[in-house]
Amino acid sequence: MLDRKFLRENRELVTRAVTLKNESVDIAAYYERDAARRAALQEVESLQAEANRANKAISEAKKAGEDPAAAIAAMKEVSARIKELKGRTDALEAEVEALYLRIPNIPHPSVPEGGEENNEIVRTWGEPVQRDFTVMPHWDIGAELDIFDPEAAVRMSGSGFTVLKGDGARLERALINWFLDVHREQGYTEVNIPYLVNRKAMTGTGQLPKLEDDMYLCQVDDLFLIPTAEVSVTNLHMGRTLDAAELPRKYCAFSPCFRREAGAAGKDTRGLLRVHQFHKVEMVKFAHPDTSWDELETLTADAEELLQKLELPYRVLTLATGDLSFAASKCYDLEVWSAGVEKWLEVSSCSNFTDFQGRRAGIRFKGPDGKGYVHTLNGSGLALPRILVAIMENYQTADGRIEVPAVLRPYMQGTEFIG
After folding, report:
1. Which of 122, 111, 119 is nearest to 328 (CA)?
2. 308: number of CA atoms within 13 Å, CB side?
3. Residue 264 pLDDT > 70, yes or no?
4. What is the tens place of the pLDDT at every residue in 327-386?
5. Helix, strand or coil for residue 138?
6. Residue 105 in 3-state DSSP?
């Protein structure tokens, strides 16, 4: 969330950010309710000062042997008005808070304006695979090699789920272990985190209240299945003050991710392109405000290193304001080329949230040179389904097998081909 003083002093900037991000919050109502709340609070303060004076007058009248009835009557009138105003301020504060939590982060000045069509390509690496045979989409070669069984998943869970088996499951496990090992070498501390979190944690990272319809809720316990390990890892330091000298703190975590995808009906429904449950390795950083933009560049480079070692062609895009997430100030998307579906597939989003999540989750820093809220950053390193798609299609052979990338073979007991 943004500082309330900042909101009051930068109404035009905030209103423009709401428009650029296509957010539905009634920003005019926020300012109207906030102004009414502050006016009521000022009146309460004024009346309390008046009540203090009345109390003094009553005391002095009693000491002087005078009748304090008039002063007592005035005091009762003031007290009734204070009680009425406090009820009003409480109601206004609830309205203000509900709107406040729906105000998005401000896009960084370097972020292009507009929708998805205005995303800017920053750089590319590698060339899309050219084959002298027709590359099968992953759902066909997966079925042919018996490593992919969406029908079984549908029978037990419905659409949007899948089953990997045999060498398909082994390939994903190899990727997970390799991702974590590389991130450890890059200086990240591996953590094993809860997959169920409370509303406070989900609100801290910005999933709630906006995205509640996209989340899976366990109603009996009022706990949410995490949509990404970002939620749990960021909340490792919820309500804590970190030593500025220890920043940045860098963590990585593997987790399943659960998303209802309520707003994505009909999009990329075949195969592994869009599913309700998938695996991902996530990187999270807690940074000092002075260095967070440099940390975004290194975070992105850490994710890119994985794609380069897998020898998968990819491109890096700066997301435009209309494609930027609610909490992010700037985001780079990494998109890998997949030869069977002939698409660029997003496999990582590397974002700087500035102090937006730090403020919501109460994560501060303190040091000799000052204190404040930490800047948080996160990026996928990487999302598994589309990396599997890219390997199954880009590493496909003319005889219908899948070559295992060289870096993964030690994690698959030397297996060179699937099929």
Report:
1. 111
2. 10
3. no
4. 999 999 999 999 999 999 999 999 999 999 999 999 999 999 999 999 999 999 999 999
5. helix
6. coil
0.85 exceeded by the pTM? yes
CA–CA distance, 395 with 152 (Å, rounded to integer): 26
**Contact by Cβ (8 Å): 381, 282:** yes
Beta partners for residue 125, in sequence order: 314
Give CA–CA dist 175/257, Å, rounded. 16
Please tell me the distance from the alpha carbon of residue 406 to that of residue 189, in angstroms, as a whole number.
Answer: 25
For 200, residues 6+ apart whose C-beta sits below 8 A from its C-beta are: 238
Angle, CA 355 vertex, CA 351 and CA 359 arms, to 5°: 125
User: Is 230 in contact with 205 (CB distance < 8 Å)?
Assistant: yes
Residue tagged 């009634």 (tokens): 26
Q: How far apart are the first and last CA of the chain?
A: 50
**What's the CA gap between 376 and 17, in Å, rounded?**
20
- For 60, 103, 105, 124, 133, the CA distances from 23, given in Å and listed in that order, are 58, 8, 11, 31, 46
The dihedral sign for the CA sequence 274, 276, 281, 285: positive
Residues taking part in catalysis:
259, 274, 346, 349, 386
**Whose structure tokens read 């991130």?**
183
